[in-house]
Amino acid sequence: MLRRSLTMRIKAAAGRGLATLGTVLLLGTMALSPARAEADFGGEVLHVLTWPDYIAPDVIDDFEKRFNARITFSYFETDDARSEILTKSEGHGYDVVLVVGNDISKYQRRGWLAPIAADQIPNRRHIMPRWADAFPDALEYGIPYFWGTQGIAFRRDLVSQPITSWRQLLEPTEELRGRIAMTGTARDLTGIALKSLGYSLNSSELSQLKEAEVLLRSQLPYVKSYAYINLSEKSELVTGEAWVAMVFNGDALMLQQFNDQIEYAVPEEGANLWVDYFCILEASPRKALGHAFLNFLNEPQVAARIAGYVYYATPNEAARDYLPQSYFDNPIIYPPPAQLSRSEFYESLAPRAQKYTNGIMARLLNEHVASR
């Protein structure tokens, strides 16, 4: 996934409706609550590897003051980029890392992750079980941070009919020629093609993957780019250069602040359900500070403040007491049960299937470049 910048968030906040303004006022009040005395870490520095702008700045300030510690951030722009960073460093150089759920087992097998010490994170009790153990090894090695969906954003003022299925995206009408923005991630592209064909997005059957490739290749003339869309007021979906795009739900909410004609749909076939987890690295010499950080993030008020900042669904059940009902009634943030029931978490692919999936992406990119 990609995350929007702080400047974008400030601009988005200025355009929110009254329901969200209530959230801002409520969260602002919570930020003024007096800090409790906590352990003194003597100015230790915690190194965190995460998405850009994925935590409210005032939350970081509060943590640093309360624990007498500092946090420095390093960022990645894709899940694959995070894996490359950790591969090059062999899991060293960072204390805490944000990991998408289906990568936890892979990282654990490489010896990069330290087990979570449950007694050091009492606020873990606020996490809903569905998200705590949604992926293998997640319960032992990670603390859920946010969850969401990947779906379709479209300009309802430009398309002749709503785009509410993967099949419509992959077998588009002529009006969408050159107007579709796809992602450049192999797993995401093959996953939606498999879903549109009635298969699981986790299929490792080569015959089904080949069907998915045929479908993706037929879509090529309609694709404007295989790169995640810009998330500013200059976004191609905002300006109308693109009419349809694959996006994550929170990013669709942000783009709506720049153009209220943008609509988001969880496709009829179902979507990819993702969960981000914070994990502590085995090589970290600051594991105690890392546990204190993860416990702090799961204080209900803190979790609510961050949720109101990033526009994603919090797995922290107790945070509900500090967010307005309108937040939970928003179907973009919290999809209806029927949509969730048709959606899937990613699972690890067999090596042969993963290699073929990567090959599909490479062939699509090469053909797209050659056709320009």
Keywords:
41% helix; D-Maltodextrin-Binding Protein, domain 2; single chain; disordered N terminus; alpha/beta; 372 residues
Query: Which structural class matches the secondary elements?
Result: alpha/beta
SSE succession: HHEHEHEHHHEHEHHEHEHEEHHHHEH
CATH superfamily of the largest domain: Periplasmic binding protein-like II
CATH architecture descriptor text of the largest domain = 3-Layer(aba) Sandwich
Strand content: 15-25%
Q: Any idea what the shape is?
A: globular
Mean pLDDT: 89
* Main sheet properties: 10 strands, mixed
In short:
This protein is an alpha/beta fold and 372 residues long.
Explain what this protein looks like in three dimensions:
By secondary structure, the chain is of the alpha/beta class. It folds into 2 domains: 6-147 and 273-329, D-Maltodextrin-Binding Protein, domain 2; 150-271 and 335-371, 3-Layer(aba) Sandwich (D-Maltodextrin-Binding Protein, domain 2). Helix content is 41%, strand content 16%. The chain contains 17 helices and 10 strands. Strands 1, 2, 3, 4, 5, 6, 7, 8, 9 and 10 form a 10-stranded mixed beta sheet that branches. α9 (186-196) crosses α10 (206-219) and α9 crosses α17. The model is unreliable at 1-35 (pLDDT under 50).
Fold blueprint:
Blueprint: H1 6-14, H2 18-31, E1 44-50, H3 57-67, E2 69-75, H4 79-89, E3 96-100, H5 104-109, H6 129-132, H7 138-141, E4 143-155, H8 166-170, E5 180-182, H9 186-196, H10 206-219, E6 223-226, H11 236-239, E7 244-248, H12 249-256, E8 262-265, E9 272-280, H13 287-297, H14 300-310, H15 325-329, H16 337-341, E10 344-345, H17 351-371
Parallel strand pairs: 1-2, 1-3, 5-6, 5-7, 9-10
Antiparallel strand pairs: 3-9, 4-7, 4-8, 4-9
